[in-house]
Structures are given as structure tokens and as C-alpha cells.
Amino acid sequence: MDGVRIDKWLWCVRLFKSRTLATTACEAGKVKIDGQPAKPSRNIKIGDVIVLPVGGVARTVKVRQLLQQRVGAPKVPEFMEDLTAPEEFQKAREEGARASGLRPKGSGRPTKRDRRILQSFFD
User: Backbone dihedral region of 50: left (phi > 0), alpha (psi from -120 to 50 degrees) or beta?
Assistant: First the structure.
């Protein structure tokens, strides 16, 4: 196998729920192979490093093997190596907590002003 389309490979290793979403991300210029924006039809090869946004996290993955069909989640590490820094996941968790109105642990009860701000935000 010489190469596989980038949109198909991203879908096969479960980085996107559908191939259409993978194609759209490529067309928008969000998927980069070795620092260059990738079109959906670009072929990838073993050893390529791919950077893409998934769920608010800038994921960095390295291609270990090529595949033509979608695989189960337990088999994904055979086909890609996740090089994403743990700080990226922590940053996404913090942004999600901030958006949902959660307060930092140990900050105490919200004041009357804090409560009013939260109520106006959620109502």
C-alpha cells in the first residue's frame, strides 16, 4: 500500500466521527501534515506527523501504519502514536469547566454578586 487519503485515515483511526467531518476539517486548512495544510485527497505515509484540532484540543499524532477500513478503539494505538502534550488536555478541561460555571475547588461559596452573575448567564 503506497498511501491512503488523509481524510479516510483520520476517520479510520477514530479522530473524526465521520469521513465528511474529516474532509471538512482538511478543506478548512485545520489539518496539517509536517507543518503544511493538507487537502483531503493528499496521501499520507508511515512516519508523517499530523496536527489537527479535535474537541478543542490541538492533537498531534504520528502515523504508524496505513489502513483502509475503520478499526475498533482498542486497536487504534497500532496505527497511530499520540504525541499530544498533556497540557493541551488540561487546558481544554479548564476551559470546559469555566464555560459550565464551575468554580475552582476551595474558593468557597459564591457571593450574592457571583450568584447573580451565574443566574444571568444561565437564564
Answer: beta
C-alpha 116, offset from chain centre: 34
Residues 47-56, mean pLDDT to the nearest whole number: 89
Name the DSSP class of 76.
Answer: G
Give how far the C-alpha of residue 68 lies from the chain's centroid of Cα atoms, to the nearest Å: 21
The CATH code for residues 4-122 is 3.10.290.10
- CA-CA distance, 93 to 98, in Å (whole number)? 9
What confidence score (pLDDT) does residue 97 get? 65
> What are the extents of the domains in the chain?
4-122
Q: Which alpha helices (DSSP H) does 1-123 contain, by range?
A: 6-12, 19-27, 86-100, 112-122
Please report which confidence band the pLDDT of residue 98 belongs to, taking 50, 70 and 90 as the band edges. Answer: low
Residue 73 has pLDDT above 80, yes or no: yes
> 43: which 3 cell numbers?
496521501
